[in-house]
Amino acid sequence: ECGSDLAAPSGGPVTSPNYPSNYGNTEDCEWRITVPEGSIIRLMFDTFDTEDDIDFLSIYDGADGSTPQLQRLSGRQPVSPITSTSNMMFLRFTSDFSVTRQGFQFSYISNAEGHCWDPGVPANGNRDDNSTSFAPGQTVRYTCMTGYQLWGTANITCRTTKTWSDAAPTCEIPGTTECGSVLTAPSGGPVTSPNYPSNYDDDENCEWWIMVQEGSIIRLMFDSFNIEYRHDFLTIYDGASDSATQLKSLTGQQTVSPITSTSNMMFLRFTSDHSATRQGFKFSY
């Protein structure tokens, strides 16, 4: 539906109208989230795709649009969790009279002041503590299911700053070859082009988003790189999308020096044309 009042301590998924089909023209939707006093709210997005710089989701740190704005989101992007400073949050989504996209899907949780947020459980993994609220000094221990490799830190501890000592790890199949993914472990890899070490296909269009803990930066390291020269490209951006500063546009067969971001996000896009393929590439970060 187009807006609602949400009063449960946690909720979702909540979506834009018609999701996963496209939302309509001239939408004007408002959501108000209210949780128990003494708690704060964390908003988490599964997907976000609106008409870039035209259709917006604005998020406010309070009961209405007169309170401080936390984020104003537009375009296609991964969205890091957004946290309030009080027990209320207000969201407003508007679209113009033409061009629509799939929209967005979010959920939210709340937590008592002074505690760490639930760090989550990785897909294909487990943890030893299923609490939903974590006091300073409390440690969570992670393991992966058989056949999966743990990337990141196995044990993380809630600090007095209400943050975890590290991000939750991920559980990956060694040598992941899918065409794009969202990578959130503090370190990861190997990540490869499709079919690696066999040749990738014609007309590939793969996108990887790397997001690490705020305050950190990313170093990308390649073990191999071989794509069709001046026809197939891997482009690397210093941020969450292709609107960020371009760090490198790679093509051909070459040795690639480490590439470093200036923030906690990096975006990679690989494209191939309609003929002639090569082995591709393999990287870690």
Automatic annotation (TrEMBL):
Residue span, Sushi domain: 114-173
Domain named CUB: residues: 2-111, 179-285
UniProt keyword annotations, A-Z: Disulfide bond, Repeat, Sushi
Gene3D superfamilies, alphabetized: Complement Module, domain 1, Spermadhesin, CUB domain
Classification via SUPFAM superfamilies: Complement control module/SCR domain, Spermadhesin, CUB domain
Family matches, as Pfam families: CUB (PF00431), Sushi (PF00084)
Domain of life: Eukaryota
Residue ranges, annotated region (Disordered): 1-21
Keyword Disulfide bond: yes
Cysteine disulfide links: C2-C29, C144-C171, C179-C206
PANTHER family assigned: CUB DOMAIN-CONTAINING PROTEIN, OVOCHYMASE-RELATED
Protein name: Uncharacterized protein
